[in-house]
Hints:
- The protein has a four-stranded antiparallel beta sheet with strand order 2-3-1-4.
- Helices cover 67% and strands 8% of the residues.
Amino acid sequence: MRAQFVLSEIGVGLRRNLTMTFAVIVSVALSLGLFGASLLMRDQVSTMKGYWYDKVNVSIFFCNKNDAESSGANCAKGAATQQQKDDIKAELDRLPIVQNVTYESSDQAYKHYKEQFGDTPVAGLVTPDQLPESYRVKLKDPTKFTVIKSAFSERPGVQEVQDQRGTVEPLFNLLNGMNIAALVVMGLMLVVALMLIVNTVRVSAFSRRRETGIMRLVGASSFYIQMPFILEAAIAGLLGAVFACVLIVGGKYILVNNWLAEKIQVINFIGWDSVVAVLPLVLLIGLLMPALAAFFALRKYLKV
């Protein structure tokens, strides 16, 4: 009988505040959708970093005969000697952070340059003798680039020590910025959702103040009186969380799998396992957040 009464009160409350309940559902759906998207974007950035950082190298470029006047003290004596190259190679082989070292000649560098720029007008501006020889150093931990830079950037015969991570770092910074922006918007939407939940509970409690007063007089406990209101908020929040899950799954399937994955094939996008891991958290937050907000709001508005 008590359970039937609580369920009937929930139905009455949802019907009386249909517009505000709908607003709660939409705001919770949008805020939790952004929350889930932010978590997935964070995983995507981590996946991309692991993928690309594993592929980039540290390049030690040697002075050539054209660098004597323009590349500083390291190249003041002209092109790097074979002895200087051999010494650097021997030191690199002794470093525990180095995985392997690959030599690239000027001709090989020119071939890669032509592959990159093809038949564009820029391709004809460079000749093989203008491109420096280099060692491409693969590190066991790409974050240890500063060790290589500090050890070899000032060595005679070394024109420059370059970390190729710099070419992909702006992309990661952009994605991190987008993630922060999504979190900020999510926070604002979450505040709006909480305010709507509190206001909905207040209106519902005010409209049923006579019934709750009678229940107090006949000896009903505070928890029994509050239960219909808390469950109303929890149901609205759970419906919003379900819609948020639909948005997340739809975004993964339509936006990522059927569009971005076809347009940008060089990116290793996260799989469905990451999405499935996020969905229970979204549902749990959608259920508990409105229930707790309603509980604390009712502590004041149901006192007699």
